[in-house]
Amino acid sequence: MTIQAIKTRFRAYQLGSAGSSFSYCSGDKFVLIEGRYCEGNEASIEQELRICGLEQINTLHITSWDQDHCSPAQLERILEKLKPVKVEYPGYVPHTDCGKDSLAIIKAYKVKKATPTVISVTPEYIDSLDSVSSYGYRNIIYWPKTIDSENANNNSTVKQFRSGCFNVLSLGDVESTQISSYLRRIQTINSEVDVMIMAHHGADNGFITSTFLKTVSPTLAIATSNYGNQFNHPKPEIRSLLHKRNVRLFTTKTGDVIVSSIGNHAGQFEVINLKAGSTEVSSRYVGCARKNLYLRNNEDTLRDRRTRHNRWPTH
Question: pTM value?
């Protein structure tokens, strides 16, 4: 596998209310992460599509049935206006009216449209996928490998978006220390994460630990919070851990966070934190994609690294 030049953009959207919304575009493939589409992010999502030269999203990826991740009314508007070709939704049974309504909307969309691929991300679905055999540009779904009947947060979808110049790890709302331990042992996570969307918005629930950050070593962490930040995300304890491990923190409290490939789009990226409602930049950082370090190695070196780790489902 050789290094590829792929124009890539990631954006964390400020919603003006509690919740999460992101997008990841690599080449001509645009993924909207979470079913949120409101006054706070609608214009920005449309702006991202224009920048990427696209008119609709390719995939809607929903990590959780909770309303801060998927609002039924906003989900309907996404499906109607942005017309995703693929919908990936949580594979656990929703226990709230919000989740039940959202699931019904997705099923109706599948019936109404002849072309969309609608996927329930269950443990069985993950087991059916091919295994990772090399470093490269294939997206990977890691979780749920099992369903937690006691805590729906631990059934969130965990996926790493690797199809572009840099990688983004989406953690949903997982909070189990066992899941944390499981994920940090996976080769493609502990070697390749550039952008980490913080689990449960950066809550101090036991998932993010000093050991997890030391092993995974993301370049930057993204936490979503509204301007008022009534939930104080990320928690002070998590901020301290990030600081100690030299992980740069960006939040949507004051505005959108945009990560975009630069130069020849083969490894370097720029991060900017916008000020709310404007194009003015409040902070900026330039980094280099971690997987490039491995893709520059010869095949013998890569093979040696792979034999020391298990392989995991890819998508």
Answer: 0.91
